[in-house]
Specification:
Radius of gyration of chain B: 19 Å
Oligomer: heterodimer
Radius of gyration of chain A: 33 Å
Number of helices of chain A: 12
Shape of chain B: globular
Shape of chain A: elongated
Largest sheet of chain B: 6 strands, mixed
Number of strands of chain A: 0
Distance between the termini of chain B: 56 Å
Number of helices of chain B: 10
Bound molecules: zinc ion
Strand content of chain A: under 5%
Strand order of the largest sheet of chain B: 6-7-8-3-9-10
Chain lengths: ~270, ~270
Amino acid sequence: MTTHPTPALISRYASGGAVVDDTTIWAVEAHLETCAACRAVLADAVDPGTQNLLDRVADGIASGIAAGPAPVRRHRLRRTGVAARVLPWLVTATGLMLAAALFEWTFDSLPSLVLLVAPVAPLLPVAAVWSRRVDPAWELTATMPRTGLPLLMRRTLGVLSAVMPVLAVAGWVTGHSPGLWLLPVLGFTAGTLALGTVVGVDRAALALALTWCAGVVAPSLADGRLPAILTGNSLPGWALTTVALTAVVLMQARRRPHLLNTTSSQGRMERS
Amino acid sequence: MMRTVSVAETAPSTYPWAVHTEKLQVRAGRHLAVNELDLRLGTGVHGLLGPNGAGKTTLMRALATVLKPAGGRLTLLGGEVTGNADLRQVRRGLGYLPQHFGFYPRFTVREFVEYIAWLKEMPKAAIPGAVQRAVERVGLTDRADSRMKTLSGGMLRRAGIAQAIVNDPAVLLLDEPTVGLDPEQRLDFRELLREIGLDSCILVSTHLVEDVAVACSDVVLISEGRLVWQGTTGQLTEQGGAGDAGDSATERGYSSLLRAYRGRVSA
Ligand SMILES: [Zn+2]
């Protein structure tokens, strides 16, 4: 409605007399809802008693708002929720990397501990973000629709973004080229997720970490030499492996979404 | 409090039963705790009764999609849960309070319920209002911003109920919800159940026959993983005679049905 009702009509509407028919009342009402100028006219048109009542109500509401509880602040708890549970594992991974850096810095005759440990450093926290063992509310979170690859990716990226700075510091202190630790880390993380779609992420992380320690870390320490797969020549190989494994994860998640549910590992539970 | 009703809510359901099991089998360890169970539940408050070890919690876990069925068919809200089905759609319509309600001690009640609402894939804009409403409905408004580790057992149970109802679930599964509640809170809780049960399917597992008598419209009685009896609460009270064990008509009905079932099985 573009034309405003006359002040006379508004005052008749305000007084509530029977002189105005229903159709007109509705039209005036609809207009008042959208027009501040006419609402001001209406406020002047009502009798002093009503005016007084309205003032008191407005005061009451204003003082209620002022005295009442403040609006609840919004939290960024999606991140903190998981982070709080995984914190001990992140601290462990950080401690491990810093110890490796310190060791390497002190005894420079040994093969680089930083490069040897880095690939498996994020695996513990990655396993933890997806393990029901560290989730006190797992029986509840196992029934949630939000699960599968998007949630797993989100949490894995969270872990990587927490572990990467530590690795960067450790790598910088010991003077390694960033690619030498970065690519193996990404390769192992992708490998954990890929294997995780088959056997569960926590078991995959454990298996890969043990295999790496037994197959690469122990022999290198015994030999006193860094293996060829941790030298600059194997970087393209790591990059290709990472891309291939990431593709496997995406394909698996598309084809069989239930595989990534924390639920799908059958519960071994006592009690009826 | 007024709430906008979405199109999806007013649309007629396309399934006859909210919960439908046919010869359902569920394992607890190696043991078949639910064995060839046939069950159909519609709208209303259903009490799940049975002696210890009857398979109540295993059944609740299977209905909540925590445990995969080992055999038979399970259909929730018209969606098949058996096999490798994508459970997301079904899970959005579920609410579940586990018997052992694990929580994050450093979360406040509001944060916890919000986190669960987010995991339930509720629209972002709807979450704060829905959380406030759920917390109000269980009577925890004044403790909404307390950390969960500071709550008493009864308050934790109510926080657990709040997270279960935050998405207005079409199927609400409550495993021993009244443990730790004082008599007055029990009354409030029954009132809440009746209200929610008007348009949802609620299954309440309990070992307290009296809870069922006052809070539930229907009763499901299971033993050794099988359905023993299903009927209204009124019908249950008519089952017992003066010679049956129990302090009330409901308890006498319960013991009479169990005795008759055991007689049939051993015969
Ligand atoms: Zn106007």
